[in-house]
Design a protein that fits this description.
The protein is about 45% helix and about 15% strand. By secondary structure, it is of the alpha/beta class. It has a single domain, classed as Rossmann fold, CATH 3.40.50.150. Strands 3-2-1-4-5-7-6-8 form an eight-stranded mixed beta sheet, sandwiched between helices. Helix 2 links the parallel strand 1 and strand 2. It is globular and about 80 Å long. The N and C termini lie far apart (about 50 Å).
Length: about 280
């Protein structure tokens, strides 16, 4: 497939996911929205249908300059800043009704320096929650095996307890990923019914409702108490991310960097050893 064809396919895929990404807007009327990682601007297009004001942050200066320079750029519908999302939130200059983390690329990196930018640690998510208005909500969209870890981290930040579940709403759709809406102030029954109706109309599957009804790993996570029990459930579910703190993420990155360097050093040595054996075997 040519480059243009691949781009059109990605755009079509993103448009197909739009109804699932529009679900959290049912909680608000003309909200002020922050999009962390605006990329090509498709999430701006989703937000523009519902938001009163949109801010965006994008760490990739190259991508930002290309997208903002295009005619009819979606960037023009928002105030977009070339910043790291966590850094922007920690400054605390503004508060938002809705903070969107759309398909963020926050996987463990060999660079330890990346930990200070990660939004998916307890400290990073705390910065997100501090950026919300009193009735605000956090919306996370990612691959399915990340959402349980984010849910567990939010539960730890909230202090756990039976009241926590009433703040979270999780849903998914095959081949499109999983989505979490978290409202620190709690989701009322009417709001939960509205969200559920929108998810079902878009062909999604509900994994966790505010009334506590849950499917799969969320039933166990909802009942768990304490960090050790949550971590055990996440490991059993083979979740790639398990509510790491900044310090733990730095240690994991350092370990991965060490293993990578050892492997890189070992490959030339094995190659040289095979070459010497081959030369010795020649008559």
């Amino acid at each position: 497939m040519r480059r243009g064809g691949r781009l059109l396919a990605r755009v079509a895929s993103a448009r197909a996911r739009a109804p699932l990404r529009e679900v959290p807007f049912a909680l608000f009327w003309r909200p002020r929205v922050l999009i962390v990682g605006v990329g090509g601007g498709l999430d701006i297009a989703v937000a523009a249908r519902h938001a009163g004001a949109i801010d965006g942050v994008e760490a990739d200066a190259g991508a930002m300059s290309v997208m903002s320079g295009r005619k009819c750029s979606l960037y023009r519908r928002a105030s977009v800043y070339c910043r790291q999302g966590r850094e922007f939130l920690e400054e605390g200059a503004r508060r938002y009704d809705l903070i969107m983390l759309p398909w963020p690329d926050q996987r463990l990196s060999p660079q330890v320096e990346s930990t200070k930018h990660s939004l998916f640690t307890l400290e990073g998510l705390s910065a997100c929650l501090r950026g919300l208005r009193p009735e605000g909500a956090l919306f996370v969209a990612h691959y399915e095996d990340w959402i349980p870890g984010i849910f567990a981290a939010l539960k730890l930040l909230a202090g756990g307890g039976p009241g926590f579940v009433g703040r979270a709403f999780v849903y998914r759709k095959a081949r499109e990923g999983a989505f979490l809406i978290y409202r620190p102030g709690g989701l009322e029954a009417r709001d939960a019914e509205t969200l559920a109706a929108q998810v079902e109309s878009a062909g999604g599957e509900l994994l966790l409702r505010p009334d506590g009804r849950a499917a799969g790993v969320y039933a166990d996570l909802s009942a768990a108490s304490g960090r050790q029990e949550l971590d055990a459930i996440l490991r059993a579910a083979r979740c790639r991310w398990s509510a790491l703190t900044d310090l733990e993420l730095a240690a994991a990155c350092a370990f991965r960097d060490f293993v990578s360097s050892v492997h890189e050093d070992a490959v030339p040595r094995r190659t040289a050893s095979r070459s010497r054996r081959a030369q010795a075997a020649r008559p």
